[in-house]
Amino acid sequence: MMGKSKLQNGIDENIPVISISGLYKTFDDLQVLKDININLYKGENIAVLGRSGEGKSVLIKIIIGLMKPDQGKVLVLGKEVDKLDGKVLNELRLRIGFSFQNSALYDSMNVYQNLAFPLTMNVKNLSKYEVRDAVEEVLGAVGLIDKIYQMPSELSGGQRKRIGIARTLIMKPEIMLYDEPTSGLDPVTSSEINELILEVQQQYNTSSLIITHDLTCAKNTGNRIAILNDGKFLKIGKFAEVFNTEDEHIQGFLNYNFIQ
Question: Which pTM value belongs to this model?
Answer without folding.
Answer: 0.90
